[in-house]
Amino acid sequence: MTSQEIEIALKTLREIKLNSTKDLRYGFDLNWEDFIKIMQFLSPKSFGTRIQNRIIEFNDFEKVNPSEDNGDFSISGKYYEFKTSILTTSNKLANFVGLRDYQERIDGYILMVIDTNSSPYKTLQYKLSKEQMKEELKIMKANPSNGTKSSNLSNLNFSYRFSIDLISDNVNSKRWDTYKIDSLKYDNR
User: Fold this and answer.
1) Nearest-angstrom CA–CA distance, 120 and 125
2) DSSP for residue 177
3) Which of 128, 141, 172, 186 is most buried as measured by Cβ atoms within 10 A of its Cβ?
4) Can you list the pairs that 68-73 forms with residues at least 24 positions away whose Cβ atoms lie under 8 Å?
């Protein structure tokens, strides 16, 4: 890349970050693929929240107040935590971070993986019960999202993280096929 091309890329990055701080719905009016292109300019924490809010809005889910520590949204009185991962040329594994299995009233988890290595982008959706996620945390040998196992020994409320290959044909992707759903609305077309 030339210096001029880098400057153009930085200008675009700054513009997207600025617009996303000004407008919590920034990009919601775009089609799904263009929305995800914009999300890739943001940090995983930022794009995770944006995608989650788009899913909540497009599906008329009820947003849960974070202070309730009870998932991210509810569907017909059931509470779910939402996680998303974007696969790129440098990130081939789905990374799920901040899985809070200690939440008592949570009923399950809805996870979304967007593969930007395919054209058009491929979006995978998964729904796991609380029990299924607890089992997956064991199978995937999940680690604490923050700190170490030893530093979290006396901490009863910490979140987990794990990475998984859901694209290639493997034992994990086959097991996760049983969790697949296709009911979430995410595009405005």
Assistant:
1) 16
2) G
3) 128
4) 69/100, 69/103, 70/103, 70/105, 70/106, 71/103, 71/105, 71/106, 71/107
Could you tell me if 164 and 94 are in contact, meaning their C-beta atoms sit under 8 angstroms apart? Answer: yes
Residue 43 backbone phi and psi in degrees, to 5: -70, 155
Q: What is the pLDDT of residues 109-167, one digit of tens each?
A: 999 999 999 999 999 999 999 999 999 999 999 888 876 666 556 666 778 999 999 99
Alpha helices in the chain (DSSP H): 3-22, 32-39, 44-59, 130-139, 171-176
As a whole number of angstroms, the distance between CA 170 and CA 163 comes to 14
Q: How many CB atoms lie within 10 A of CB 178?
A: 9
Cα–Cα distance for residue pair 46/182, rounded to 1 Å: 24
Domains and CATH numbers, the chain: 3-181 (3.40.210)
Supply the pTM of this predicted model.
0.90
